[in-house]
Design a protein that fits this description.
The chain is an all-alpha fold. The protein has helices spanning 4-12, 26-38, 44-53, 61-69, 71-85, 99-122, 130-143, 147-164, 170-185. Helix 4 (61-69) packs antiparallel against helix 6 (99-122).
Length: 189
C-alpha cells in the first residue's frame, strides 16, 4: 500500500519542463503540456499541429512518432536487458519483487521514453525539470528502487530505440537519451 508521502512524491515526480522552450509558440507548448499533464504520448494530429506551429523542429517529429509507435517492443527489449544483467531481480529477495514492483518499473520505462519523444519533437535535449527529478530521486529512495537496474533499463531503451532509427540520425537523437540517463545516474551520487 502506498503511503501519503509516496503518493505526494508520485504526483510531484514530473520530470519534464517546457519552461526553457522559448523558440516554441505558446500554442505549441500547450500541446506538449497537455500531453504531459495526461501522461500520454503525442498523437499524429498533435504532431501535425506542432509541426505547423514550430516548423524548425518538423524534421525531428517523424523520429518521435517512430519511437512512440514502437514503444512496446522498445520496452520489451529494455526489460530483457535488465533480466540479462539481473536474472533474479524479479524473484523473492530481488529488487523488483513482488510482481507489482516489476510492473511499476516497466511502467517507468514507458514513461521514460515519453519525455524523450517530447524532447526530440521539440528539439530540446534538456527537457527535464530539476524539481521533478529531485522528487523522483526522493520517490526512488523511499521505494528503494534498484537504480542500477533502472539505469540498465534506460540504457536498454536507448539501444532498442537506436536500432529503429536510421543510423544517419543517431547523432541527432543520442543526446536526448543521454540527458535522461545522466540524470538517473546522478540519483546514486
Amino acid at each position: 500500500m502506498l503511503t501519503d508521502r509516496i503518493k505526494e512524491l508520485i504526483a510531484r515526480a514530473r520530470i519534464v519542463s517546457f519552461a526553457s522552450w522559448e523558440s516554441h509558440p505558446a500554442a505549441s507548448i500547450a500541446i506538449f503540456q497537455a500531453a504531459e499533464d495526461a501522461r500520454v504520448y503525442l498523437t499524429d494530429e498533435e504532431y501535425t499541429k506542432i509541426s505547423a506551429l514550430s516548423p524548425q523542429t518538423s524534421s525531428l517529429i517523424p523520429i518521435a512518432q517512430l519511437l512512440r509507435d514502437r514503444v512496446v517492443e522498445i520496452i520489451d527489449e529494455a526489460r530483457a536487458e535488465v533480466f540479462a544483467q539481473f536474472p533474479h531481480i524479479a524473484e523473492p529477495g530481488g529488487g523488483l519483487y513482488p510482481p507489482e514492483r516489476a510492473e511499476a518499473c516497466w511502467r517507468d520505462f514507458w514513461h521514460y521514453l515519453r519525455p524523450i519523444t517530447y524532447g526530440i519533437a521539440g528539439g530540446y535535449d534538456r527537457y527535464t525539470s530539476v524539481e521533478g527529478l529531485q522528487n523522483m530521486r526522493l520517490l526512488y529512495q523511499e521505494l528503494q528502487v534498484p537504480l542500477d537496474a533502472m539505469t540498465v533499463g534506460l540504457t536498454g531503451i536507448k539501444t532498442a530505440s537506436l536500432k529503429r532509427i536510421d543510423p544517419s540520425q543517431h547523432s541527432i537523437v543520442i543526446p536526448y537519451f543521454d540527458h535522461l540517463i545522466t540524470q538517473l545516474k546522478s540519483f546514486t551520487e
